[in-house]
Amino acid sequence: MLQTSIIATTKKLGLVAGKETSRCFIGPHYAARDEDIDRWLPERQPKAASCTVTTLATSGGAKFSRSREMAYAGLAVTTLGLRSYASVESLEKLLEDRGYLMTLTQVERMVARAERARNASMLIGGLGNFFFTQNKHGGISVANIRCYEGRWSAYLYELTYREFYLGDVYILVPNFKTPERASWP
User: Of the four listed, 37, 51, 71, 105, which is most buried by Cβ atoms within 10 Å?
Assistant: First the structure.
């Protein structure tokens, strides 16, 4: 299991308007955009209510892994504070029920804030800032937005994807509530 700590909480992220998914992560700040974003996500990102986003930091040493424990589902297990793995369907339901899903437009707003303030709520120059988002089939996908040499790139993965370069990463979680378990501060 990943070691996790809370490193930042954003000021209130206000109401965010919806927009076409194909227009997200486009512009001078962005270097690359995964084509799966348009294939797997709904055509339109919905309006998102005001929320506070908590940034969780994982640590455990950087390594490339194909094991189940290091798959993207492991980020969900860690975020939810579970002691063991659950089915993907259970993880998806828990993430949705707890309000831990973000829209691409919310993350775009966080990128804009990070660009202006270079604040600690987003990892800049590292492996990435992961977040959970609803896909067009009703399931959950994991997205990664990362900054390298001043430009951002966006990637999308299935929750069940097994290959994962695990290192120190951030997980962006709206409406976060600290799980009831001993490893949390």
Answer: 71
Q: How far is CA 30 from CA 50, 79, 85, 108, 140, in A?
A: 25, 27, 34, 10, 24
* Cβ neighbours of residue 119 closer than 8 Å, sequence gap 6 or more: 8, 113
182 lies in a domain?
no
Q: What is the DSSP string of 66-101?
A: -SGGGSHHHHHHHHHT-SS---HHHHHHHHHHTT-B
Angle of CA points 83, 158, 126, to nearest 5°: 80
The answer to whether the beta carbons of residues 170 and 122 sit under 8 Å apart is yes
- Is residue 118 included in any domain, yes or no? yes
Q: Range of 154's domain? A: 3-174
Contact call for residues 8 and 54 (beta carbons, < 8 A): yes
Q: What is the pLDDT of residues 151-168, one digit of tens each?
A: 999 999 998 886 665 566
Alpha-carbon distance of 175 to 48, in angstroms, equals 12
Q: What is the pLDDT of residues 53-103, one digit of tens each?
A: 998 887 654 344 445 455 688 888 888 988 777 889 999 999 999 999 999
Residue indicated by tokens 């000021």: 11
Other CB atoms closer than 10 Å to residue 159's CB: what's the count? 21
